[in-house]
Amino acid sequence: MKPVLLVLAAGMGSRYGGVKQIDSVGRHGECLLDFSAFDAKKSEFGKVVFVIRPDIEKDFRERLFDRVARNFDAEYVFQTHDSLLDASEAEKSSGRTKPWGTVHAVLCAEERINAPFVVINSDDYYGREAFAILGKYLSSIDKNSCEHAMVGYILGNTMSKSGSVSRGVCSVENGYLESIVENTKISYKGDGIVSEVDGREIPFTGKEWVSMNFFGFSLKAFEQFHKYWDDFKASSISDLKAEALLPVAASDIVKNGQGSIKFFTSSEQWFGMTYPQDREIVKQEIEKKLESGYYPEKLWER
């Protein structure tokens, strides 16, 4: 069974200042997501499912989806404030404007996923190697396997020159994930890399393995995601800023003995659309790949 690509594209883009998911970065108006969808198709994925906000549907279709859907089996679902909430929960959280987070987004798409699936962010470039690795792995496992997977990246290859980033720092043992610890405000300082936590600076070498939300799950993972989401609602339904984070839920699968996560690696250079000034950097990196023949002049046939 061919795996499914699930793209989380409902974020607000507060640091970017716009709908970065559908900003043009290619020669013919392609978005960053065009290249991820192309790499997934090349890596024998069966279809792509996008999670978006209702308010960007029109632009999303015009700038990206209709083009992809003419060349690849594609569909989309909505993530809204009241998705997966009962009336009482919706009322308690009525003042919230921030999305509920990546676990919530994944659960919004559950009914459209019928095979092992890869989850990615919409604003990150991962490289075809990662899609090929998880595509092959997920095609080999049972849809209800307890062995999931991820691709980790080298921290130094995932930094932004435009500002700080958040990264889940991974502990790995014998090729399997042990834990992920989310670190916010990681940035360059002098010749080094530091993370700011509660006013303290934690130094990094830049060689640490980090999660970029490139996970591969069997359908079995939904059981743990539902438990995580229920626990999150019980503790944070009235919190206007709390988010249900996929790296935390994935780490809980391991911590709670519900399964394992095989840890693959990639030496690809990450780039992404976190800040407005990142767009020009992304365009330059995509252009390099076009000039080298990594991608064809036009990604899609029509």
Summarize the structure.
This protein has 302 residues and is an alpha/beta fold.
List the keywords.
single chain, alpha/beta, two-stranded antiparallel sheet, 8 helices, 13 strands, globular
Secondary-structure blueprint:
Layout: E1 4-8, H1 32-42, E2 47-52, H2 57-69, E3 74-78, H3 87-92, H4 102-108, E4 117-121, E5 124-125, H5 128-140, E6 147-154, E7 165-173, E8 176-189, E9 192-197, E10 200-204, E11 209-217, H6 221-236, H7 246-255, E12 260-266, E13 271-272, H8 278-292
Parallel strand pairs: 1-2, 1-4, 2-3, 6-12
Antiparallel strand pairs: 4-11, 5-13, 6-11, 7-8, 7-11, 8-9, 9-10
Task: Describe the protein's architecture and organization.
- The chain is built from eight helices and 13 strands.
- Helix 1 (32-42) packs across helix 5, helix 4 packs across helix 6 and helix 6 (221-236) crosses helix 7.
- The strands form two sheets. Strands 1, 2, 3, 4, 6, 7, 8, 9, 10, 11 and 12 form an eleven-stranded mixed β-sheet that branches.
- The chain has one domain: Alpha-Beta Complex (Spore Coat Polysaccharide Biosynthesis Protein SpsA, Chain A).
- Helices cover 30% and strands 27% of the residues.
- It has helices at residues 32-42, 57-69, 87-92, 102-108, 128-140, 221-236, 246-255, 278-292, and strands at residues 4-8, 47-52, 74-78, 117-121, 124-125, 147-154, 165-173, 176-189, 192-197, 200-204, 209-217, 260-266, 271-272.
- The protein starts with a strand and ends in a 10-residue tail after the last helix.
- Strand 9 and strand 10 (200-204) form a beta hairpin.
- It is of the alpha/beta class and 302 residues long.
